[in-house]
Amino acid sequence: MHLRLPCACGMDLASRGQAVAWFGKRQGATLRETGMRERPGARGRDSLGVVVAHFERTQWWPGSRLRAAQERALARLLRHAAETVPFYAGRLHNPGLFDAERFDWDAFRAIPPLRRADLQAGSEAFLSRPLAALADPAFSFTTSGSTGMPVTVHWTPEANRLVAAAIWRYHHWYGSDPAAKSCSLRAVPTDVQGRGRVIRSRGWYPGHPEGESVAADAAQPVRAQLRWLVAEAPRYLLTYPSNARALLTEARESGVGLPTLERIDSFGETMVEGLADLARSVCGARVADRYSARETGMLAIQCPQGTGYHVQAESVLLEIVDESGTPVEKGESGRVLVTVLHN
Asked: Residue 18's pLDDT is what?
């Protein structure tokens, strides 16, 4: 996956009356529409409930309307980057990049994709000047560096709500019970003594604080993970496809049952062939997949009623391109090029 235009722009859209403006005028919405429980400090157009209610409408938009909305979002993003982000100052000249009504896609695709080395070499240059001036501007984290090149990412509160809304959509589409227990087996940092940690919290389903969430390290031996999973008895398990296959194979070979497990949520790797059949035969669980990255949030969700994936077009522009950066034809393979529309 490559990024075409990453920057911590810090556009305070809500303060400009544009909480979800890049996909049309904000329509009235209530938390009752979404089944969410309002949290203190999250009210009006700033609340997650407003964003997910909007997502409930935009998911039915035709492709032409989504593309027009993306053009408006791109024009706004590019203008903001050109005016306030040092790295792009002097690099974005073409007026067609800022025209939402006649957006210049050729000029946009001429922007060179950024490399991790660019981000590492000048990370401060990608911070919007208004954002950098704030004492505590955004939620920040450093990626795991699975490629050997970790980078630091900054999320504004507005952008973070959109990321959460895409996660909400995932669980809503798959009918997740927000009161149920969800476990995850993933990369979990060790404690100061180098021992694996178990992290317990609540609220794994955005907007619903009641569900228990428990995470443990997927680097443990598979048998140890399986014992832990049996003891926790969750309804949902979030883990890597390869780890899910190892767990299911161990359960089948050792005769261990997983009677409470209803769904395996896979992420972080290419889907393993035959995983859905294996899960169904071992414990009757369903497998659901998501395509995401820490730098971008949710990119695509596997269709609950089919085998394809739904790109989260409200949040990202996802292109499949050839080596020259030209979008490939339908049915062809290529590399993934992502532009985040909200951060």
From this structure: 28
Is the model's pLDDT at 62 over the cut of 80? yes
Maximal CA-CA distance, the chain: 65
- Radius of gyration, alpha carbons of the chain: 21
- The token duo for 39 is 């949290």
For residues 124-155, one letter each, b for 16 or more C-beta atoms within 10 angstroms of the residue's C-beta and e for the rest, the string is eebbbeebbeeeebbeeeebeeeeeeebebbb
Q: What is the mean pLDDT of residues 251-258?
A: 97
Strands (E), the chain: 2-3, 139-142, 152-155, 182-186, 199-202, 212-217, 236-239, 263-266, 286-293, 297-302, 309-311, 316-321, 335-340
- Over the stretch 72-130, which tens digit does the pLDDT of each residue have? 999 999 999 999 998 888 789 899 999 999 999 999 999 988 877 777 776 778 888 77
Closest among 47, 29, 46, 51 to 38, alpha carbons compared = 47
Strands 139-142 and 152-155: what pairing?
Answer: antiparallel
Q: CA angle 58-64-65, nearest 5°?
A: 35
DSSP β-bridge partners for residue 142: 152
pTM of the model: 0.83
Length, in residues, of the chain: 343
189 has a pLDDT exceeding 90? no
